[in-house]
Known about the structure:
single chain; Leucine-rich repeat, LRR (right-handed beta-alpha superhelix)
Amino acid sequence: MTQPHGMDPHINGAARLHCMWSLGLDRHRDPMQTPNQNAHTIDMMPSPPTSPSAFPVPDLPRDELSIVIANVKGKNPLRLVSRSARDIVDSIVTSLNCDRRQIKDGLVWEPQLIARLPRLRKVYIAFSYSGVSDLSPLSACSSLQALSCSFTSVSSLEPLSACTALTKLDCRNCATAVSSLAPLSACTALTHLECHESSVSSLEPLSACTALAYLGCGNTAVSSLVPLATCTALTHLECYQSSVSSLEPLSACTALTTLDCSNTAVSSLVPLATCTVLTQLKCFETSVSSLEPLSACTALTILDCSNTAVSSLQPLAVCTALENLNCIRTAISSLEPLAACTALQHLYCDSALPRNFEFLNRVKVRHYMIY
Length: 371
């Protein structure tokens, strides 16, 4: 594109504000992801303040538009757009992606700028190493649907209490650690939440999030899953390395397909008897001693019960879809119950078990590891 007359020569190509919009067949692409090669790009170069007309206003389609912030070396990229073009851009921007940029509060991340984006629905500020620490600019974004602020310095989710349309949130691994999910009690449309590696200790606010389908709260101080009893749409739960000791509330989560409760004080899998569509279970490094409840989980494909007190694989005889089993360092004495598991491909077991190679050939195990 021909550079506008009078353009600041000190602003190089890396400092451009790239605006991408999706068209027709690409309309369903997630604007938070890297745009594909078919996406149209406009390099919106700055024009002198005294001559706003020097920048030709593009004929932008009234469709989804996302802004990707490039490194600008101290300049505010949103202000690099001339006033006449900016008014058009602001009215249709739906996605802001500042992934892995050196962003500072008050430079790009300020209320005045974010407030100019009334249709903003997706914000990606993950890995903002210089430290985005305050989500206040988002308090006016009532249409916000997805936010990723992982690996930032954010410590409070309070501003999100006004974002009632929020469906997806990733706030894991924040430097100062998010400690409370209380503001999310107003986000009843929430379907996906990742708060791994945080200081969160209670899931109580999520009892109102009945549409929640994905929850990652691993390596936190969470001790109770009771609030999840109302989250009957839950399909994926990761609560590994937490203080959880009971899976009882999950008996109501009959849509559950993936569960990782490894490295916890869980001792019973009984609540999972109602989770008949469960396909993946990791319960290693727990106090589990019986797999009996899993006899109802006939769709199970992956099971890791290593480093437990499990003594029998008999319940797995009906799990004919099982593909991957890790039962090392257990009290298991026989692999014979797996005879009907003809889909088994990966088996990890102790060296003390009888090495019945005829059995292994019969179930067509492709990867057999003895420890």
